[in-house]
Amino acid sequence: MKKYVKDLMVAAVEFPHECYVLLKLTDSEPLPEMLPGQFVEVKVEGSPKTFLRRPISINYVDRENNQLWLLIKKVGEGTQKLAELKVGDKLNLVFPLGNGFSSVQEKGEKVLLVGGGVGVAPLLDYGKYLKDNGASPVFLLGARSKSDLLEQALFKAIAPVYVTTEDGSEGEKGFVTQHTLLEKERFDRISVCGPKPMMMSVARYAKATGTPCEVSLENMMACGLGACLCCVEKTVKGNVCVCKEGPVFDINDLTWNI
After folding, report:
1. Is residue 48 part of a domain?
2. Does a structural domain hold residue 169?
3. Is the pLDDT of residue 49 over 70?
4. In what order do the strands lie in the sheet with 189-193?
5. Helices marked H in the chain — which ranges?
6. What pTM did the predictor assign?
7. Which of 40, 63, 65, 182 is close enough to 95 for a disulfide, judged by CB 3.0 to 4.6 Å?
C-alpha cells in the first residue's frame, strides 16, 4: 500500500475527556485508502523535547466528510502540543502505516472487539468496516470508571456495546475478561487493543475456548518503517518490527506466556 507524507488540515478539535483530544483532519484531495488497525506517524511542532514522530492509531476514516480522526491521550509534552492545535492548523503525517486487522472471513461471522483505555481507538473504524462488509461485530470495552469511557455513542451506532469499569460505575464491575458476556456467548474470532496485561488476559480466554484471536500491539514506534528498531517484538519467527510486521498479530505468532 502506498505511503504518504502530507500536511493535513485540522478541521475540528474535540475534547471527549480531560485527558484526551480528538483531532479531525482533512485534505484538499480525497484521502487515500487506509485499513482499519493501521496507524500514522505525527510530526510534533514546537516541542523541543519531541525529536521523533509519534505513532497514533487511526480512530476513524469519515469518507463522507473526507476526514481522518485521531484520538490522542495526553501523556507528555508531545501529545500535549497536539492537544493545543486549532482549527485551520496543519499537521504533518506519514501514513498509512503497518498492517491492520483481518478482513471479513465470511458473511455473518460474529467478531468480538475488545478495547481498553485509548486502545478502543482503532476498534471504531474496524467495527464499521465489519458491519459494512456483512459481519456482526460486538464491542466489549473496559475503563477505570464511567467518565473514562470514550466515544460510546459512536460505538453504539455501529453494534452492541458491553462495558466493564473497575469501580462499577458503568456496566459490570471488574475487567473485560470478567464480563458475563464471555460466559454466555461464543465468537468466531476476537480482535483486541489496549494495555498489554488486558490483551494477554483476553488471549488466555481465546486459547482456552479455541477462538482465533489477534492483538494490536502498542510498542513505541518511532519511525514507522522498520528502520529505527525501537519497536522490536519477539515472535515464533524471530524478532520483528511491530511497525512493519504489525501492529496486529495473531496471538499464536507471539511468544507470550499464556
Report:
1. yes
2. no
3. no
4. 172-173, 161-165, 136-143, 110-116, 189-193, 213-216, 248-250
5. 77-83, 121-132, 152-156, 181-184, 196-209, 242-245
6. 0.95
7. 40
User: What are 220-240's pLDDT values in tens digits?
Assistant: 887 888 888 889 999 999 999
pLDDT digits (tens, 9 = 90+) for 193-212: 999 999 999 999 999 999 99
What does the block give as the cell for 71? 484520538
For the chain, what percent of residues have pLDDT higher than 70? 98
- List the CATH number of the domain containing 70: 2.40.30.10
Res 258: pLDDT: 85
| 23 domain-assigned | yes
> What is the tally of structural domains in the chain?
1
Q: What residues form DSSP beta bridges with 216?
A: 193, 248
Asked whether residue 96 carries a pLDDT value surpassing 70, the answer given is yes
- The CA distance from 164 to 183, in Å, is 14
Cis-peptide, bond into residue 247, ω within 30° of zero: yes
Domain interval for residue 26 = 4-97
- Pairs from 77-84 (Cβ < 8 Å, separation ≥ 24): 77/47, 77/49, 77/50, 78/44, 78/47, 78/49, 78/50, 78/54, 79/54, 81/44, 81/45, 81/46, 81/47, 81/50, 82/21, 82/23, 82/42, 82/44, 82/54, 83/15, 83/21
The Cα–Cα gap between 205 and 257 comes to 13
Q: How many helices (H) and strands (E) does the chain have?
A: 6, 16
